[in-house]
Amino acid sequence: MGESFQKLNLTNAYLFAAAMQDEEICRNVLEIALNKRISRVKAHVEQVLFLDSEFKSVRFDVYASDEEEVSYDVEMQNDDTKNLPKRCRYYQAELDVTSLRPGEDYQQLKPGYIIFICSFDPFGKGRCQYVFEEYCKEADIPLGDETQKIFFNTNGTDTENVTPELLHLFEYLKQSTEEVAVRHQDEKILKIHERVKYLKRDRKLEAGYMTMEEYIHQEAERRAKLMAESMAESMAESMAESMAKSMAESMAESMAASRVAQNILALLEDLGTLPDQTKERIAKEQNEDVLSAWLKIAARADSIEEFQSKM
Q: How far apart are the C-alpha atoms of 100 and 110, rounded to whole Å?
């Protein structure tokens, strides 16, 4: 079961993308990350949901541009997918295609930054940041294509080589609490925290997170069902095929129902103490339509009593 929405830290890609849609917050994060003044940005978030072999990858790209016509692509990355360099290449191509109008000269291409904020060390050197630019190998001449690929490692150890403000941001990303936000009295971090507190009170945003989590788990259960059915087919030589498939489907359906029930209980934990009788009723329910309806009620309810009256 996914983490409770109220307990998410800003390293969570969903919450990070929601916060970065606020253009002032986006500007503050970019200023801290790049250690430069940015006058104003326009930001939007593009969500791409995809599942890897372990059913756990969700990508939220934050696209931004500033008044100097610089483009930024920022992504929070928690899983080491081993493909970040090639993804940088693809993302840069996306930025270039969208920034150059038909008939314009290549000189009109905007400068671009591809930025990954990683909760792991993408290159294993212990650094807080890795900045890549195009250079000539023989003469150390910059290519001058005005692009950078930057990887931040929130657990880096060379802290003397980065700004204190960046370290404060790393600290807050990993533990997005009031205590950490006020610890250094950093104006930008405090503004980010105020936005995070506001977002965590947004029930629609919370419902969207739970829906996303449910989708991921349902997809995992669907794949598990396919695997179980495949196993059942191989067992058909020694047992009746219909019996094997029935067992696989029953097992998968039970797992799916249990997952939704856990999501409901996680939502209700934030509203108060749930009576044992209601907990038991939710846990025993196997009808997927009923559970889906209860999940929606739980996401919108403001109290345990309201949930119980509507369920």
A: 8
